[in-house]
Amino acid sequence: MDIIKLYDDVYEINNFLTDEELEEVHEIINKTEEKAWFSEEASGDKGFWYGKNLEFKTETVFDKINNKMKNLFESYHYYPPKMILQRYKKDDFIHPHTDQWIPDLDYYIGYGLCLYYNDNYDGGQLEYPDLGITVKPKKNSLYIHGGHILHGSTPVLSDDIRYFSTVFVRGTEKEPTILRKEIFK
To answer: Could you give the domains of the chain?
Structure first.
């Protein structure tokens, strides 16, 4: 893994998956029928997030990938047991937001993680507006950012689909989200 610190609490990890894991993800993408993908409105806020999801009921390579991502943390309150595959087609994007959008809960989202499976599309850049950072995610790269950091994406401009997965790691006062110090030096 090649880790690049883009800013305080913002990291890019290149070559996160093995070639075999990435190939297995692409096999799933290529074999999945359109009717298996579903839409979701984040927080009931129509127009906040544009794209589709794919959930898995049986164990897949995504379980192995999720465990790899989980191992980047030395402490957390909750780490999701499953991850989903997501996609953006032409004109799909997500508005700038932070991952701590529910302030009254007894937990917080310490980190958001986004893993990209391809980069053969136009547009679809990852943006951190308050930090002045815009990046075109590379295939097989994982981006990690603190839940308090404003981020979003630009629309996909081509007919090529952008495939990715996101995970939100929660913390509490007693069980904070902490990245592994030996990995994130």
So the answer is: 2-39+51-179 (2.60.120.620)
Sort strands 108-116 and 162-171 into parallel, antiparallel or unpaired: antiparallel
Residue 139 and residue 118: Cα distance in Å, rounded?
4
Structure tokens at 37: 């993908």
Q: What is the signed CA dihedral for 35, 158, 123, 50, rounded to 10 degrees?
A: -30
- For the segment 24-75, what is each residue's pLDDT rounded down to a tens digit? 999 999 999 888 888 765 444 445 566 788 887 777 899 999 999 999 999 9
Pairing mode of beta strands 126-128, 152-153 = antiparallel
CA-to-CA dists, residue 28 to 23, 36, 134, 148, 163, angstroms = 9, 12, 29, 33, 11
Under DSSP, the state recorded for 160 is S
Give residue 51's pLDDT.
76
pTM: 0.90
Q: Please compute Rg for the chain using Cα positions.
A: 16
Q: Of 125, 129, 127, which is closest to residue 158 (Cα–Cα)?
A: 125
- In the structure encoding, which two tokens stand for residue 71, read together? 């191992």
**Which residue bears the tokens 């590379």?**
138
C-alpha distances in Å from residue 175, one per residue of 100, 103, 110, 147: 16, 17, 11, 15
| Start-to-end CA span in the chain (Å) | 13
